[in-house]
Amino acid sequence: MEHSKSPQVSLGMPVYNGENFVAEAIQSILEQDFDDFELVITDNASTDRTADICLEYAQRDKRVRYVRNARNLGAAANFNRAFELSSGAYFKWCAHDDVLGSGFLMDCVRALDNDARHVIAYPRLLGIDGTGQLTSYVERVLPDMQGSSPASRFRLMVAAHGWDAAMFGLWRRESLAKTTLHEPYYGSDCALLAEMALLGTFVHAPNAILYSRDHPTRSVRLPSSERLAWQNPGGSNANAFELSRRLKHLVAIAYRHRRTAPLGMTLFHLVAWILDPLLIARFCLELVGVVSPKLRTKLRGAGLGALKRIHAASNRSPG
Fold first, then answer.
1. Domain-terminating residue out of 219, 253, 280
2. CA dist 309 → 221, 281, 301, 304, 314 (Å)
3. What's the confidence (pLDDT) of residue 314?
4. Residue 1: inside a domain
5. How high is the pLDDT of residue 233?
6. What is the CATH number of the domain that holds 143?
7. Strand, coil or helix: what is 80?
8. CA 102 to mean position of chain CA atoms
């Protein structure tokens, strides 16, 4: 089948040292029922067999394009590069360790085609383990956004602290191009989703399935020092200020889109969000880290231990 110069769908796969699962992820994309797509792989200067695996697929299938960065740019910049190198009207980020159900693209494209107000079509997300076996994890579905205001959608996504199904759903390119994209701190995807919610609605495509793989080297499983290096390989700051940077990012987003949603309303939602006691505690830890990173680490460990004990006690409680 001949493809137009600009396919309807672009998929961007940022990867670094992904030899463990990248072949399975690529294969699941090539086996989609929907055919009019390109896959742009941006390799962040991997040191394992990632390049060999990806180049083999690129030689086999013209829809696959492999781009290797001369150096590790950090996760955020590599995610953005995948989007910038793509051209499709719809765009999806693909994790190198996830697997798509065969009807994923067809169902998400149909959902976006049906209503121009939708900016993200998101799938049903199921967990799998390192061997590809289903786990008990099923990500919850977003509340219906139909009829909701931009400010209320912004509030929803700020409070959600991210949503993998939406993050790895299918995005409308013209809307994504109006955003700040990913910023170089862990949790920037949460702010990006809140920004997209200002621009339109998210729609559930229940027949599209994303199998999200959980394994020890997944970014959410990394200790804070390794997670910082994942985002900023050239940095040495032990205090990442992740929450502070997210708040700053969200304020910038609110100001950027003040004509879409009144600035007073979006800032009110941010104030209400940040007054959560757990978030206040996180802010305090970041401030302590300015003076004493060791004390911050010690207090953080004590706090996490207390939360685990409370959680364990609640699970033992009858009813």
1. 219
2. 20, 18, 12, 9, 9
3. 45
4. no
5. 79
6. 3.90.550.10
7. helix
8. 21
Residue 290, pLDDT score: 67
Mean pLDDT per 10-residue interval, the chain, length 319 residues: 74 97 98 98 98 98 98 96 98 98 98 98 97 96 93 97 95 98 94 98 97 87 68 64 94 98 98 94 82 58 50 46
Which pLDDT score is estimated for 293? 61
- In whole angstroms, give the CA distance from residue 145 to residue 236: 41
User: Domain range spanning residue 292?
Assistant: 241-316
Specify the pLDDT at position 310.
Answer: 47
Residue 307 has a pLDDT of 43
Q: Quote the CA–CA distance of 119 and 173 in Å, as a whole number.
A: 8
- Cα separation of 240 and 126, whole Å? 30
pLDDT of the residue at 308: 47
Q: Are residues 264 and 116 in the same domain?
A: no
- Look at residue 270 and tell me if it is in a domain: yes
> Has residue 230 been placed in a domain?
no
3-class state of residue 187 by DSSP: coil
181 and 50 in one domain? Answer: yes
Give a yes or no: residue 76 inside a domain: yes
Is 249 in the same domain as 198?
no
DSSP character string of 90-130: EEEE--TT-EE-TTHHHHHHHHHHH-TTEEEEEEEEEEE-T
Q: Is the dihedral of CA 259, 192, 300, 278 positive or negative?
A: positive
- Tokens 């609640």 belong to 314
